[in-house]
Design brief:
By secondary structure, the chain is α+β, with helices and mostly antiparallel strands. It folds into two domains: 2-225, no CATH class; 232-314, Histidine-containing Protein, Chain: A. It contains eleven helices and 13 strands. The strands form two sheets. Strands 1, 2, 3, 4, 5, 6, 7, 8, 9 and 10 form a ten-stranded mixed β-sheet that branches. Strand 2 (78-89) and strand 3 (92-93) form a beta hairpin. Helix 2 packs parallel to helix 8 and helix 10 (249-262) runs antiparallel to helix 11 (289-302). It is globular, with a radius of gyration of 21 Å. The N and C termini lie far apart (72 Å). 37% of the residues are buried.
């Protein structure tokens, strides 16, 4: 009993110290936190075979990063950290919303080390929780340890059930991690510092607030690894007309060609796109198998219910 009381007192003190520190922060400290979140994404995705699968990032409704969350205690100690989140909107990724995470069981990592945490919100129900000012992982929103690797099969449970996928990185090792009971709350002090006034998380994450100065690096990293949502106007027309494809083959062809041309990291430019009402065909040549995978992935995102056929060949060096 004394051990539990002591651990609670330590965690409470840590949260209090962090809260007091926020009040004295300058905007530059918020920028440092966003830059640290960008670095976490870059380093994790720099090793694709051990990073977050591309399909998950492309499907995620929101993405949250907590750089250097601190664990206090032994085996069953608590956690406290502060991070930033962004959600997809009709015009791209939203401005970053500061938040705090407190408590919860993040696996059985021993010691007082700091870990980096990445959370992906995978569906509309999870996104609604993220838009609220506070929710608890595992209680208000179902969570699961995220799979790791270059790709993931579309039939796995994350696609069907998990509202939030969670990952952690400690001592260079990156893996999905189970989470229970962690409370996610809007960082109101951080929000005031970053935006100059109190703005509800929902307004920020819905894209109703302009991205603040200093958020470029974080948002650029998110865009780099999480493809932008399909063109909103075309999608809206599809829903209003109760059809399941883009309004016309010409329109869909133009969207896919534009996305292929501007996809970060896609070096191949000799890709031809042809469409019918049921099929998108990619032909031409690419410089590597990675580029072929990226091109197919982009086409699938913007093909609606059309099948994507890959007729791409890999260029061989002379």
């Amino acid at each position: 009993m004394r051990f539990k009381i002591g651990m609670f007192a330590i965690l409470t003190a840590a949260v209090l110290v962090s809260t007091l520190a926020v009040a004295a922060e300058e905007p530059s400290e918020q920028v440092k936190r966003m830059d640290a979140a960008a670095t976490v994404l870059d380093e994790i995705m720099g090793t694709p075979d051990k990073g977050i699968p591309e399909e998950l990032l492309d499907s995620a409704k929101c993405l949250a990063v907590i750089p250097s969350m601190v664990k206090i205690g032994f085996v069953f100690g608590g956690r406290h950290g502060r991070g930033v989140a962004t959600c997809r909107t009709t015009s791209g990724w939203s401005a970053p919303a500061p938040f705090t995470v407190t408590g919860g069981s993040w696996g059985l990592q021993i010691g007082g080390e700091a870990i980096d945490v990445v959370m992906l919100v995978m569906n509309d129900q999870g996104m609604e929780k993220m838009l609220s000012s506070k929710f608890k992982i595992g209680a208000d929103a179902s969570a699961a340890a995220g799979p790791v690797g270059r790709h993931v099969e579309g039939t796995t449970d994350w696609k069907m059930r998990a509202e939030v996928l969670t990952y952690s990185r400690a001592r260079g090792a990156f893996a999905g991690v189970t989470v229970n009971g962690a409370s996610i709350t809007q960082d109101k002090d951080g929000t005031r510092i970053l935006y100059g006034r109190m703005v509800p998380s929902a307004q920020i994450l819905k894209g109703q607030v302009k991205a603040p100065e200093g958020s470029h690096n974080f948002l650029a990293a998110v865009r780099k690894y999480g493809t932008e949502a399909p063109v909103a106007e075309a999608s809206d027309r599809v829903q209003k007309n109760d059809t399941r494809t883009l309004a016309s083959s010409t329109e869909a062809k133009g969207v896919i060609e534009d996305k292929l041309k501007n996809e970060p990291g896609l070096d191949s430019k000799d890709i031809q796109v042809t469409l019918t009402s049921a099929v998108v065909t990619l032909s031409g040549s690419v410089v590597s198998s990675d580029d072929r995978d990226k091109a197919v992935r982009v086409a699938k995102l913007y093909a609606g219910d059309r099948e994507v056929q890959d007729h791409l060949s890999i260029q061989r060096p002379d």
